Amino acid sequence: MNQFRENSFFSDRPASHFLLVLVAALFFVLAFRLWFLQIYKGEFYFQKAQENLQRRQHVYAPRGLFLDREGRLLAVNEPSYSLALVREDTPDMDRTLKQISKWTGKSLDELRADFERGRSMVRSFENQILVSNLSFELLTRVETEAPYWPGVKVVVQPRRRYLQGEVMSHVLGYVAQASEQELAADPGLRLGDNVGKHGLEYTMERILRGSRGLKQLEVDAAGRVLREYMLAPPQPGKDLQLSIDLELQTYIYSLMEGRTGSVVVLDADTGQVLALVSTPGYDNNKFVFGVSRDQWRNLLENPHHPLQNRSIQNAYPPGSVFKPLMAALGLENPEISPGQEVSCTARYRLGDRVFRCWRSHGRVNMNRALVESCDTYFYQLGERLGVDQISSFSVASGFGRRTGIDLPHERAGLVPTREWKRQRFNDAWRGGDNLNLAIGQGFIQVTPLQMARLTAAIANGGHLYRPSLFLEEKKLDPEPLPWSAGTREFIYQAMLDTVEKERGTARRLRTRGADVGGKTGTAQVVRLMPEHTEDDPEAVDYWLRHHAWMISFAVSGSQRYAVAALVEHGGSGSAAAGPVVKAVFDYLFPQDQEQTTGHDP
Amino acid sequence: MIDRQMILHINWAMLGVVLLLFAAGVLNLYSASAYRIGEGTTLTPFYSKQLIWGAVGFLAMLGFMLVDYRHFKAVSWYIYMFFLLLLLAVYFFGVPIYGAQRWLSLGFVSFQPSELVKIGMVILTAHFLSRIQHPLELRDLLKVSAMVMVPAVLVIKQPDLGSGLIIILLTGGIVLYHGIAKKLMKIMLALVPVILPLGWLFLHDYQKTRLLSFINPAQDPLGSGYHVIQSQIAVGSGGFWGKGFMEGTQSQLRFLPEKHTDFAFAVFGEEWGFAGSVILLLLFCVFLYQILIVSQEAKDRFGSLLCVGVFFYFFWQILVNMGMVLGLVPVVGIPLPFISYGGTSAMVNFIMVGLVLNVSMRRFMFKG
User: Fold this and answer.
1) ipTM of the prediction
2) Is position B16 within any domain?
3) Which is higher by pLDDT, B3 or A195?
4) Contact criterion met (CB < 8 Å) for A46 and B293
5) Which long-range CB contacts under 8 A does B93-96 form with residues at least 24 apart?
6) Pick from A224, A241, A258: which residue ends a domain?
7) Which residues, including other chains, have CB under 8 Å from residue A599's CB and lie 6 or more apart?
């Protein structure tokens, strides 16, 4: 039986039908698959193809600059180079991370940890910044070798630079890499971004940052950029012109160098801050690069605490600079007349305790008590007025609460009350406490800025302004000083006398061309010494010395300024703080004759 | 040797379809090679090289049409042995490219004997089976198996799993078409589940990862799964009308690997869309159908089986390549006839067509 025929077996052999079926099956299976891919899921795959070639990249918005009141640059942006990774382009992550570690010297474990931490914060095909602030040598090396490492990118970011470093450090603060918490809290931040951490950089973050732009890139499979267009241009941050006078600030800083303390200069009429110096300062540029553990420890362990802004973050007993306020309270009190004299024998007895004055002043009235800084007079005043009046008057005059300046971590200081003492020490307020309080000792603590603000109010007709750091802001949140015009006049005059009179304690402030008033203070220090100083007699001597205070105003024509200076462990207020204040006035009121002679033909 | 009658009887429809397919292939290659960023390796664009290879192949096709196909019977063993020798030569003198030793260089030109051997396989199998008048018994099957396994193993060893599989599959196709004794068939089917896992052991590591990544491409999207994913994205993103000639981003921006060779169809699918792809597929089916017609009209069993062999050659190449591009079949290096770039492959395709045309033009010749 021959089942094969030589001809025409196509139609009658099952096997040939089977071949036809195969062709049909081929067509339908493949056509169905084409339909599935291209039509049913066409849109999906189209998106995928777009994702392949289109990448979005953020365009950094330049951070707003800081300028001083004359337009001099304080903080600028300069390009910095960071090493980033696009993980979708990186075929061998482990090898690549090893290479990055080799380049940068950053340990592999640290890199791995950073990579794992950061990956969730970066969308696919976006740069994940791993190492910032590449040095120039490293940059050239990475740039040449990166083509062999797919996924490795060098990213240019603007970096902050503070032109004056220490001098402006406490005002400007600094930016540094955003922490995980900051990234989590602020959707506008991205990994590797710098964010204000301190000072105005911190409080003005929203204004300075601007908003980043978005760029669309078209890339090929190797990640090469073929085309790019801007989807949203970056909105640059706003520049901020400060009320600070850089020249004055720098001058004061140089005068204070080597000493620990604070100098605040206010324009008494506007409440603007002309200088806000705290020494020692710190180099805020270091934080932008990321401080090393050692640098950070050094800053923290420095007994002079350079990170602290002493003008607002430290509160000190005011000592005698508190006396004008005490005198004012006395003047407001109908039972007390300024002409009433008190006899000072350098000793003031209260019960079985003896309180000392620094000198035997004889018979003093209020004016003399202020001018010559007689403690006995104020013991007597404190005993008569009592804590309740003193503390409420102090708070109303701006103490025990923040001034509201646009800087972080401002301290309120402390105005003690009966209630406070009970809670704090579980003890009743005693007569002796009144006496201490009356001469600005004991529990009361004030910041240099609070002191300057009160001085400004004495000079400007009784307006407590919120101190402003910006040239555009003037006379913020005015608050009347709760002193009658007569009272204010009296104190104003007494402070002038303190400078002008032969026995005035602030004689050294006399300045040609301006009416200068002032008050010195020497605040006793009761504080723990830093560790390991007991062995060094000179160090012990330093840490036991009193704080030196000087508050002062100067008026000339329409110009009115207020200055508060504090030198920690400076000893006498007049000797330690006085020359700095005098230098400020010499700067503010330059001697016309000297200046014009240069121009004479 | 050739008369007017014969020329009239050439299956012009098939030839026309073939030329259309080839033209589409060259056009597609033109697009695929357009944006090459020169690395100094290839200066001649692929499409123009392919044109030259096509012309050479066309001449070879004519050559294979000149001689009456029945003469091939007498020399089928010699042709087969000749190609086997070439394969052995590859084994010893081959030029390794990308870790595989597939190429034989004649100095001015290189070619892949693993492609050529398919011609020998078709002719020899057709000859062998045409002399057997009954469904294959075990003895016949063992002979065929020996005939196919020698070249297949040599090719797979290169390693070129794709071509090795095609050799086995096309021979298997003709054998099944011829018929196998029912009892034997049943035993063989029962053995399949035993043999398949054994085959796994013989695969190279890269072949195993390809198979695994076919099952789950997302497991290694930048590595072995990359081809599978990018190819489907290319085709799928074409949509109904395609992105247009030379507008495919997947291929132009080189996201698509092997876009000239194994994944050329993905370029086509992306740029011509569903409409173009289905038309291309339809052309292939018409082509296959024409082969079947010639096979049916052949006046002897050898001619008929020859056509069936060619049919299976193309059938498997198309199925495996398109299936691979569309993500239905694991990635094995098989070019798509007339569309993919490849000199040897173009030659073989045209020669295969020549064999069928040879049968078709001599279908009314009566030998005395």
Assistant:
1) 0.91
2) yes
3) A195
4) no
5) B94/B158
6) A241
7) none
